[in-house]
């Protein structure tokens, strides 16, 4: 194996690396998002770097310490830190403190709803706060592993040890508990609101069909799944955790039950991050050696966006229109591609 990606090993791969605008963030990056047409590179601690396609970078201080989580709806970026603060960043670089944990606990999960509602967690407690009004809280049996809002209505999925709790913070209805042994971390609803899936502490995923809570076991991974992304329309769920992108089929009413996943874009290193295009059946894939590919879901055709550069890819993001792709490695080496 050579130290750099060798196109000669796969002559069919087209390279567009020369079209990427390189960016030097100058600090470790934890994740990548978009606010409008500006890419947001969330630092591992203290600040967020905003960058334009022209290469202009401005850093915005956000936390006193580590940044533990981040979520964006394209209009604002909300981050949680080990300083116990929840901070919102707008596209102009303005910041607002949304909450400060009374016990100064770490805020390590955050989720955004389309109506402006935000959810976050500290320890075993999940919080939900609308655009107006006080935060509502709900305690689960163990530390919160992940949060996600349903596509319709204000229903929050709270992943934790032993399963997922579905909470309606604006209703008196009792929360629903979806049980499955083990520690559940990241959680996502399917875009059509028919399925719920979690990434587990062990190298596996689990899912439920929400109509009848039927279980879906998605196992066989060599490593833990740390990144998940729904394809346009929710027909497939792309995941990391192996040296290929594992794409589970969700087009039918049974989801992936009884079906084999597609395995795309194999490399001699693990997939680190996946990000599906918001409109077309393509995805961006970042690997543990720094390589970034664009991959067509239909047939697995690949385009090289970034050659391997040592540090693993930490984040990938598309803007809402799907015209810009931003990426960053863990060491802060980053870039933006205009489609």
Automatic annotation (TrEMBL):
The molecule here is called Anaphase-promoting complex subunit 4-like WD40 domain-containing protein
Parts forming coiled coils = none
Mention any Pfam family matching this sequence. ANAPC4_WD40
Tell me the PANTHER family matching this sequence: ANGIO-ASSOCIATED MIGRATORY CELL PROTEIN (PTHR19857:SF8), MITOCHONDRIAL DIVISION PROTEIN 1-RELATED (PTHR19857)
- For the keyword Repeat, the answer is yes
Q: Which organism is it from?
A: Bradyrhizobium macuxiense
Residue ranges annotated for the Anaphase-promoting complex subunit 4-like WD40 domain, each copy included? 278-338
UniProt keywords (A-Z) are: Repeat, WD repeat
Matches recorded under SMART domains:
WD40
Concerning InterPro entries, the annotation shows: Apc4-like_WD40_dom, Quinoprotein_ADH-like_sf, WD40/YVTN_repeat-like_dom_sf, WD40_rpt, WD_repeat_multifunction
């Amino acid at each position: 194996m050579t130290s750099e990606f060798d196109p000669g090993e796969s002559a069919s791969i087209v390279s567009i690396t020369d079209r990427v605008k390189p960016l030097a963030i100058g600090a470790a990056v934890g994740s990548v998002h978009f606010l409008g047409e500006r890419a947001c590179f969330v630092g591992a601690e203290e600040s967020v770097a905003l960058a334009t396609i022209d290469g202009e970078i401005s850093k915005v201080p956000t936390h006193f310490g580590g940044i533990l989580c981040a979520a964006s709806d394209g209009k604002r970026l909300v981050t949680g830190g080990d300083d116990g603060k929840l901070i919102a960043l707008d596209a102009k670089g303005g910041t607002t403190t949304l909450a400060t944990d009374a016990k100064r606990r770490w805020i390590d999960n955050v989720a955004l709803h389309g109506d402006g509602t935000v959810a976050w967690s500290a320890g075993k407690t999940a919080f939900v706060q609308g655009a107006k009004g006080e935060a509502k809280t709900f305690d689960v049996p163990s530390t919160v592993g992940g949060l996600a809002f349903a596509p319709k209505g204000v229903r929050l999925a709270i992943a934790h040890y032993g399963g997922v709790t579905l909470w309606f913070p604006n209703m008196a209805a009792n929360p629903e508990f979806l049980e499955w042994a083990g520690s559940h971390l990241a959680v996502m609803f399917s875009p059509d609101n028919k399925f719920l899936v979690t990434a587990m502490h062990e190298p596996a995923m689990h899912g439920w069909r929400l109509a009848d809570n039927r279980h879906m076991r998605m196992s066989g991974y060599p490593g833990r799944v740390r990144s998940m992304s729904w394809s346009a329309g929710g027909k497939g769920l792309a995941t990391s955790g192996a040296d290929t992108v594992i794409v589970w089929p969700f087009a039918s009413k049974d989801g992936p039950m009884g079906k084999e996943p597609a395995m795309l874009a194999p490399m001699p290193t693990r997939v680190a991050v996946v990000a599906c295009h918001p409109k077309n059946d393509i995805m961006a894939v970042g690997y543990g050696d720094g390589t970034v590919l664009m991959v067509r879901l239909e047939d697995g055709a690949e385009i090289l966006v970034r050659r391997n550069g040592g540090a693993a890819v930490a984040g990938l993001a598309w803007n809402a229109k799907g015209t810009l792709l931003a990426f960053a490695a863990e060491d802060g080496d980053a870039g933006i591609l205009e489609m």
